[in-house]
Amino acid sequence: MKSAPIKPLLLGLAIAAVTAACATTTSPTGRTQQVGAVPQEQLNQMGAQAFAEYKAKLPQSTNSSQTAYMRCVVSAITRQLPSGWQTGWESALFVNKEPNAFALPGGKVGLYTGIFSVARNQDQLAGVIAHEIGHVVSRHHDERVTRQMGAQAGIGILGALVGSQYGSGAAQTTQQLGGAAVQAAFLLPNNRAQESEADIVGQRLMAEAGFNPEQAVNLWQNMIAAGGSRGPEWLSTHPEPQSRIAELRARAADLMPVYQQAQAAGRKPSCG
């Protein structure tokens, strides 16, 4: 049986209800955000559900050395998170040649094995992981869900949750996973403001954990080189690469004292 279409008035009331439930807050960099359409507990449950689906349908690496390496870096970074964000983090390494990673509400981190082709030491891997965790602690998923619910009255929430995946590799993976909600999640990238913010938050986080913030510059240089003169296709939704590198380099100089203080305090990760 066909369901009746939602009448414009009801749709408007639904959107109004969602908007009323939202709150205005300030991000870690001082940016105004609209969040709160979904309670944090529910966001965490959605993140866990999406992560479980990844693990059920994508092959996980059996390389115990790489898995331990990844978990060591994740642990070093999450120990530096604000109170309330530190515990319960879970990570998984998926077999995929794309150099990519993601993090989800509820403390979930996923890496593709292809990330090791561009993150060539522990500091560069920390740059990747801290950036992705930066999306979570900056409440970018909450912001995206709130925005999507406001526009679509709650349709396709999961599609806003999982985080950005890019290019032909993303298309291939969505075929593996199937399902309209998950496909939307893969194809919907973070916007450039969120990417820039995750750069700022992540680079400071890696320095506080005792990883060299200068290596974030080398990481992005490697990423651009991996895709030739134009860079990988999945970088197209990110800030302009050379501008991004210049900003990372400038911040690294400011963060070197933070890194040195972390090292002096005994935060000297030895992950691989």
Structure description:
There is one protein chain. By secondary structure, the protein is mainly alpha-helical. It has helices spanning 8-21, 40-57, 64-78, 122-137, 140-152, 157-161, 167-177, 180-187, 192-208, 215-226, 241-264; strands at 23-26, 32-35, 90-94, 101-104, 108-112. The protein is built from 11 helices and 5 strands; from the N terminus they run H-E-E-H-H-E-E-E-H-H-H-H-H-H-H-H. Strands 3-5-4 form a 3-stranded mixed beta sheet, sandwiched between helices. Strand 4 and strand 5 (108-112) form a beta hairpin. Helix 4 (122-137) crosses helix 10. The chain starts with 7 loop residues before the first helix and ends in an 8-residue tail after the last helix.
| Low-pLDDT residue spans | 1-18, 153-188, 229-235
Order of helical and strand elements = HEEHHEEEHHHHHHHH
* Coarse shape: globular
Class derived from helix and strand content:
mainly alpha
Number of strands: 5
Distance between the termini: 58 Å
**What is the domain total for the residues?**
1
Into which percentage range does the β-strand content fall? 5-15%
Strand order of the largest sheet: 3-5-4
Radius of gyration: 19 Å
User: Could you tell me the mean pLDDT?
Assistant: 79
Count of separate DSSP helical elements: 11
Helix content: 55-70%
Largest sheet: 3 strands, mixed
Pfam family, one: Peptidase_M48
Protein name: Beta-barrel assembly-enhancing protease
GO molecular function: peptidase activity
InterPro entries: Mito/Outer_Membr_Metalloprot, Peptidase_M48
